[in-house]
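PT: before anyone asks, these are the final sequences, not the draft ones from last week. 582 residues across everything. Please model them as a single complex and drop the result in this thread when it's through.
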Amino acid sequence: MASARVYAHVVRAQIRSQAQYRASFLIDLFGSMAVNALDIATVFVLFSVTGGLGGFGGGPVLLMAALSAASFSLADMAVGTADRLREYVRSGQFDSLLLRPLSTLAQLVAVNFAFRRVGRVVQGLVLYVVALAVAGVHWTLGAAVLAVVAPLVGGVFFGSLFVAGATVAFWWIESGEVANAFTYGGRDFTSYPVTMFGGWFRDLFAIALGFAFVAYLPALALLDRPDPLGLPDWLRWCSPVVALVAACLAALFWRVGVRNYRSTGS
Amino acid sequence: MIIEVSGLRKDFTVTTKVGRLRRERTVVSAVDGVDLVVGRGELIGYIGPNGAGKSTTLKVLTGVLTPSAGRVRVCGLDPVADRTTLARRIGVVFGQRSQLWWDLPLGESFELLRHIYRVPAAEHAARLRTCSDLLDLDGFTRTPVRQLSLGQRMRGELTAALLHGPEVLFLDEPTIGLDVLSKQAVRGFLAELDRRGDTTVVLTTHDLADIEKLCERLVVIDHGRVVHDGTLDALHTRHGSRRTIVADLDAPWPAGQTVPGAAVTAVEADGTRVTLTLDGRAAGEVVAALARIVPLRDLSVQEPDIEDVVARIYRG
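LR: through. Structure below.
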C-alpha cells in the first residue's frame, strides 16, 4: 500500500508535467478520444454490413470485440508506455530508474503515465457493458464472476505482451515496431471470433500464443455456446492461468533484460 | 569497509559490421580486474583518461550494470541483487544524467524524492535546509528544472542525491561544464561534507583541481586496471615529480655553477633568474646553499604539477 502511494505521487507529478504543455495535452486528449470513437464506429459499421462473422451473430461478435477493446485499453493505460523503454535504453536514461529504490518497470510506466489513455478505458468498458446487455449472456454465478474478471485477465495478458515486447530493446535497440505486431496485431486478432481465421495461422495465434483466451473463449463461456472448433469446455475457464503464465514470462524477460542492460558511455 | 571490490571485470560485446550482412563480435573488457577498498567517511578521487573504465566501475558499484566477474559489496550489499535496498543507502550524481523532473519546479523534485525514498518529513526538511544554506538554492527552487542553468541544476542534483541521507555518495564528473563560481560552490560543499565525516564520497573527474583541493586518496585507473592507489604525494614520488625553486638574484649567476641537492635547469634574464629542480632534498637546505653563492632578491617554491604527472601516466 505504501508503495502504491509512492507511485501515485509519481503519476500525479507526471500529470502536472504534462499539464505544463496545455495545448499539446488537450490536443492529445481529444485526438485520442476521437480515434477511439472511430474504432468503435468501425465495429458498428462492420456489423451493420455483415450481420455476423465466423459463424457468430452480431451479439456474440460484439461481445468479443468489446471484451478485446476493454482488455486492451486497460493494458494500454497501465503499461502501454513500456515501449518507451527503447528511448531509455538508447539514451542511457534507464540508469536513473535503476538508481531509485523502486521497481524499474513500475517507474517507467508511472513516469510516462499518459492521462489521455483513461478516456479509452472508459470507452472500452462502456462498450463492454452494452455488449453484455445485448449479446444474450447466459447469466449464472460463474458467468457473473467471469464477466467482471475477464477484462482484467485480458488486460494482464495484453499487459504482459506490452512488457515482453518492450524488453526486446534490452538486446536490440533498433527493434522498431516489431513488438507492435504482437500487441496491436493481437488486439485486432482478438476482436474477431477465431473461427474467422484458418489453418496454422489460427493455431499459432489462438492457441500457441494464447490470444483465444482473451475474448473468444471467455465469450463462449459467458454465452454458454459450444465451440465450433471443438476445444474442450474446461479450457474456456483457463484464461486466468494463461494470463498468469504470460505475466510470469514477461517478468522473467524483464529481469533478464535488466541484467543485460549495457548503459551508455557517459 | 563500506566498499569492497575484488577482481571486478566488466565485458562488453561490440558488434562491428563486416561487409554487407556479416557482423563481427569482439569482447572488450571496460574494467579488467579492479580491486578497491574504501573505508567509511573517506573521500577518494577516481580518475583516468576517457574510456579507462571509471564510469563503468561506478555503474557496477551502484547496481546499474551487472559485473561479468569479481566480487562487489557496497554497504555490505550486492549492488545488483539488492538494488532497491542499496538505492536507499547511496546517493548518485552522474554529471550527464539528471535525477530531477525536467518540467517541474526544483522544489517539487525534492518533495517527490522524499516520497520515493520514504524520508520522514522532519529529517527531509533539515537536510534540505542544510543543503540550501551551503549551496544557496533559495533563489531557484520554484523554477522548472529545464530552465535552470547548468550550475544551478548541478547544485540541485547534489541536494537531490543527499536528501535521503546516503552513506555513500557517488559523483561522476560533478563539475563538468561548470563555470568557476559553480565549481567553487560544488567543491566547497564536498569539502564540508568530507569534514563532517559521515558520508563516504567516490568522485570521478577530469578536473584535477577537484582532486588537489578535495582528495587525500587518489585511485588512478587506465585500460580497466588500477595503476595507482595512494596519496597525491605518493603519486608524485613514484613518478619522479620534482619541486622547483625559481630565484631572482641581485648578481648574475656564475656560469657552470652547481648547487648541492638540486639541478640547475634554466638561467634567464641575463643570469639574474635561475630555476633549480630539487632531487628530493628539503627546499630550505638548497635555498641556504643558493644564498651562499649569490645574494637573493626574491624566491618561489613550486609544487609539481598534477596535470603533468597524470598526463605521464595516461601516456603510459
